[in-house]
Design a protein that fits this description.
Number of helices: 8
Radius of gyration: 19 Å
Helix content: 40-55%
Number of strands: 3
Largest sheet: 3 strands, parallel
Strand content: 5-15%
Order of helices and strands: HHHHHHHEHEE
Structural class: mainly alpha
Shape: elongated
């Protein structure tokens, strides 16, 4: 997932080309570690695309950026803790992405955020049909 997050940060490469990568079974991780000469095998990439990828790989700290990304939801869990002192309720996470090039799909966001809430508050339960609380993201 952290490499998918890196790929979405490359805003100068079109979403259409990113979809082509996916269609060609070239994962973001594979692209990140792909030898420079193999980038020329990806025929829909321009020289500018290759330059963007190479420069990004040289300067992008995947681990650091992924940790920063994951820390963003800590504030959300704290907010939920304050909003619901009694944690005995059912909930559903309902994510909608404004940016479709975001590294996670809506269902993945729902699952990951739901998992974090369940880990933080084990007395809560997921109910996707009739939840007491709907968390819109």
């Amino acid at each position: 997932m952290k490499f998918k997050y890196w790929l979405t940060s490359l805003t100068d490469i079109s979403n259409a080309k990113k979809k082509l990568l996916h269609d060609c079974s070239i994962t973001a991780e594979k692209l990140f570690f792909m030898p420079k000469n193999e980038l020329f095998d990806i025929l829909f990439f321009t020289d500018d695309d290759r330059k963007i990828i190479l420069e990004s790989r040289a300067s992008y700290d995947v681990e650091k950026e992924w940790i920063l990304f994951q820390q963003k939801d800590i504030g959300f869990v704290t907010m939920e803790d304050e909003a619901y002192p009694d944690k005995h309720f059912t909930f559903k996470v309902n994510a909608r992405r404004a940016r479709k090039n975001y590294p996670l799909e809506s269902m993945e966001i729902n699952a990951q955020l739901g998992e974090r809430i369940l880990n933080a508050f084990p007395e809560t339960r997921v109910d996707v049909h009739k939840p007491e609380v709907v968390i819109n993201v």
